[in-house]
Design a protein that fits this description.
alpha+beta, four-stranded mixed β-sheet
């Protein structure tokens, strides 16, 4: 999952902040009662859920478009005039997608980057995208490329982006809920005429802070789903090809000197460092061990 996770989270934070600003400007803060001196927690929870799930589903709807724009993905038209490696990539994606039971073939794209990487994204199984980097095609042999693509197709077949969206909606709900409670408490410690301003500013400060903390949950889910996608890739392409793909990734990362690559460790199929709370992918050694 990788960079798509990063852009999904970034888009989600921006969307939720935008919705929150709109709701704050409009007179719809019905969760404050008794002239703003008390909170109706039930109303606040409903208010938070509306903002939280709206933000996550808007982020999901934008995920494929965002990935294309941010990564510069060039979509391959299967009906067009293709060169040999474009034909090979499209054939692999479509063959593995049919094996995974997908009735609508994902869009297939290539983006120009030296990093060895690939990703799958999209709002649904019917509107998905599988993209590979030029670096992946140059560095890996045919079997390893097939293993990587099988892993990404497995993410689509597993519905990981939709499940992540629901999880993000829950996280967003608690982010909005808690940030407003803390902001309300903070506004009680200033003069009455300053309370609305302090409340307004505190809401967005704490919403960003809680969003970053909440992303730890999303990253943990991402790492968990990587193991499932590895097993799914093994089912689709064969265990030997999936293991070969992971071992090829490990061999490649071992050749890279620390700091040589500057790409963000997100929409990525591999992590160069040991997994941390903010890693989207588990350690490669652990993935190979579990697959074995």
């Amino acid at each position: 999952m990788g960079k798509r996770i990063f852009y999904f989270l970034l888009t989600n934070i921006l969307v939720v902040l935008t919705i929150s600003i709109i709701f704050s400007i409009l007179p719809v803060r019905g969760y404050l009662t008794n002239n703003g001196t008390t909170i109706n927690f039930t109303t606040l929870l409903i208010f938070s859920a509306v903002i939280g799930f709206t933000g996550s589903f808007i982020s999901l709807a934008m995920s494929r478009w965002m990935a294309k724009k941010m990564m510069g993905v060039q979509i391959i038209d299967p009906s067009g005039l293709l060169n040999d490696y474009e034909k090979a990539i499209v054939e692999k994606v479509h063959r593995l997608s049919r094996a995974a039971g997908l009735t609508h073939m994902p869009e297939v794209g290539i983006y120009n980057s030296p990093e060895v990487n690939a990703f799958a994204t999209g709002p649904s199984k019917k509107r998905s995208l599988v993209a590979v980097s030029t670096g992946l095609l140059q560095e890996m042999d045919d079997d390893a490329v097939e293993g990587v693509i099988a892993h990404e197709v497995a993410h689509i077949a597993n519905g990981d982006m939709v499940t992540m969206t629901l999880l993000q909606g829950i996280v967003n709900t608690f982010v909005v809920f808690l940030s407003r409670i803390v902001a309300f408490v903070a506004s009680r410690f200033v003069k009455e005429e300053l309370a609305p301003i302090v409340h307004f500013i505190a809401v967005f400060v704490f919403q960003i802070v809680f969003s970053i903390l909440g992303s730890i949950v999303v990253y943990a889910y991402s790492r968990h789903r990587e193991y499932h996608a590895d097993r799914g890739g093994a089912d689709l392409a064969g265990k030997d090809k999936m293991r070969h793909a992971l071992e090829s990734l490990k061999a490649y990362t071992n050749r890279i000197k620390s700091g040589e690559e500057t790409s963000i460790a997100t929409l990525k199929i591999n992590n160069k460092r040991k997994a941390s709370l903010f890693s989207t992918h588990p350690d490669l050694d652990e993935r190979i061990r579990r697959l074995a």
